[in-house]
Specification:
20% of the residues lie in helices and 34% in strands. It has 176 residues and is α/β, with parallel strands linked by helices. The protein starts with a strand and ends with a strand. The mean pLDDT is 92.
Length: 176
């Protein structure tokens, strides 16, 4: 069965974006070391991306407006907006938990839960995230969009890996 992996960055105080939804603070402290690119390794193991409308909108309007940067992956955008699916992008306005359960049963590589916070919280609440790959950025935002909020019940996780790159601490946990 495919795994759903939340691969996301957050500030040391638990925010994934500032109050305006901006992520321009997502920097490490030093130049990238050769062979220390966890993102490149991560995307080799996925073929599907799962994201909310706000994440999609930020990518196409701010981060990469000239081209869709995830063209090699099937992308599901969870939205309340009625949109026609196009190429490798499927706009879905049903229950994200139901769709993810279906996708996890299909053949293929793992599924990247890309964001945002609301979608991640829904999937955490439904206990559908198998692995948490959290990059902790050495920044205290003080306010903004929190990654973790209230959950209906406690979740036990097992620490699988800790790495440090550019001052960023990467924590990888799996559901017990």
């Amino acid at each position: 069965m495919r795994k759903a992996i939340l691969f996301i960055a957050m500030s040391l105080d638990g925010y994934i974006a500032d109050p305006d939804g901006k992520v321009d603070w997502l920097d490490g402290e030093e130049d990238q070391e050769e062979g220390m690119d966890s993102y490149s390794e991560f995307v080799k193991g996925i073929d599907t991306i799962f994201m909310g409308w706000n994440t999609y909108h930020q990518i196409v309007t701010e981060l990469s407006p000239a081209e869709w940067i995830y063209g090699d992956f099937m992308t599901y955008v969870i939205t309340h907006h009625k949109r026609k699916s196009e190429n490798q992008i499927c706009f879905y306005n049903g229950d994200p938990a139901d769709l993810l359960k279906k996708l996890k049963k299909e053949e293929g590589k793992d599924i990247w839960i890309c964001g945002g916070a609301n979608l991640a919280k829904q999937l955490m609440s439904a206990d559908l995230i198998d692995r948490y790959h959290i990059s902790v950025i050495p920044t205290l935002l003080g306010k903004g969009i929190r990654l973790f909020g209230e959950l209906p019940r406690e979740r036990k996780l097992a620490l699988k890996s800790v790495q440090r790159q550019q001052g960023i601490t990467e924590l990888i946990y799996e559901r017990k």
